[in-house]
Amino acid sequence: MSTCWLVTGADGMLARDVTARIAAAGERSAALTRAELDITGPDEVRAALAAHRPDVVVNCAAWNDVDGAETHEEAARAVNATGPRVLAEACKERGAVLLHVSTDYVFAGDAHEPYAEDASPDPRGAYARSKAAGERAVLDLLPETGHVVRTAWLYGAGGRNFVRTMIGLEAGRETVDVVDDQRGQPTWSADLAELLLRLGRGTLAGTVPPGIQHGTSSGETTWYGLTREIFRLLGADPDRVRPTTSAAFHRPAPRPAYSVLGHERLRTTGIEPIREWREALAEAFPEIVRAHRESRGTGP
């Protein structure tokens, strides 16, 4: 019997890749946009689970406007904290697995080695606080069937992201100044989608224990290092990318200086962590370039 999945936030980049991976595996899914399912409404969520009867719920719905959360913290908490709690309560009632996607921002970003899955969150800023609260709700309510899957620096063909932005800037500027004092793990949304499917199936089979997992690529770099690789893949001169500091770009919300996540817990469950970031970017790149050009009406 195939697994039935319910995916929230279905119009987002990650959710599109999750839905595509489910379809490719020949399994059933219901992909619901925010307009179709408000995850903050308990009655609405219960009705959706009753109608679709999922074995696994993948929560890709989120408030991702990091800076906007500083002035709209209540709205951010509704989606990032209340929503996961409502989903967890409904999944508990129906016995469904919940895979909740979270973020590296739950950490302060002042470490010097990869954050372990059991490291204590220390959120800085409204967005980070809202995501940390969502994590706690899922872990508290679903100790046997809940996963928090932290990711970071997500990019893909199906949405706005840093990689697509830099592709556009390469075509329009002679040089680009990019921050070189923030370190992280660029992660292809399709790779994360595949990991989510493996976690869902493993939890149903009893081979993957619930809890926190880190869904980021292996290796690490800075935004500057990532941009140089983007230019190289475009056939452009990487020396057109110039390093700068975070101080040169004032933002309302703080950014983690170091948000590299460890993957030891995946290894102990027998799941291979996501591959090295350069390998993934090279495979993803043609599709991302094509999507970028089509969105601008410039053709293949």
Q: What attributes characterize this protein structure?
A:
globular; Rossmann fold; 12 strands; 42% helix; 16% strand; 300 residues; two-stranded parallel ribbon; 6-stranded parallel sheet; alpha/beta
In short:
With 300 residues, the protein is α/β, with parallel strands linked by helices. The protein has 9 helices and 12 strands. Helix content is 42%, strand content 16%.
CATH level-four homologous superfamily name of the domain at 4-159 and 185-218 and 257-275: NAD(P)-binding Rossmann-like Domain
Rg, Å, rounded: 19 Å
Oligomer: single chain
Helix content: 40-55%
SSE topology sketch:
Blueprint: E1 4-8, H1 13-24, E2 28-32, H2 42-52, E3 56-59, H3 73-94, E4 97-103, H4 126-141, E5 146-151, E6 154-155, H5 162-172, E7 176-179, E8 183-184, E9 187-188, H6 189-205, E10 211-214, E11 221-222, H7 223-234, E12 241-244, H8 264-268, H9 277-295
Parallel strand pairs: 1-2, 1-3, 3-4, 4-5, 5-10, 6-9, 7-12
Antiparallel strand pairs: 8-11
Helix pairs in contact: 1-6, 2-3, 3-4, 5-7
GO cellular component, one term: cytosol
InterPro entries: dTDP_dehydrorham_reduct (IPR005913), NAD(P)-bd_dom_sf (IPR036291), RmlD-like-bd (IPR029903)
Pfam family, one: RmlD_sub_bind
